Amino acid sequence: MRPVEPVTTPAAPRLAQRTQADDDNTNTLDPATRRSCLRRIRFLAEAYGLQWLVDQATFGRDGINAMDDTELADTLRRMEHARQCGHDGIPFEDAGLLVDTSLKLNLKGIDHA
Q1: Per-residue confidence (pLDDT) for residue 54, from 0 to 100
Q2: Predicted TM-score of the model (pTM)
């Protein structure tokens, strides 16, 4: 007769401890979510003619890939809002979606008034 081996129970999984760094990074997107946001922005720009919103958001930058996560999320929210405005017949200007990009210029001798 074979000796009976003692039954051992697996150790409980250790829970990850949250750190201050975790709390500081609450505004970061994981890579998959960031890629999804970029795809959705590109889709909305093409399907609904909202490239002007992307151009407005990226004025003076190298494009949407150069945006940080907060800017990217804000651009996506604005584009979803613009899509809904188009569906509801609300002018983009009335919805506050048009921004004067000339105000981002910092050149001497330009009057923004």
Answers
A1: 96
A2: 0.69
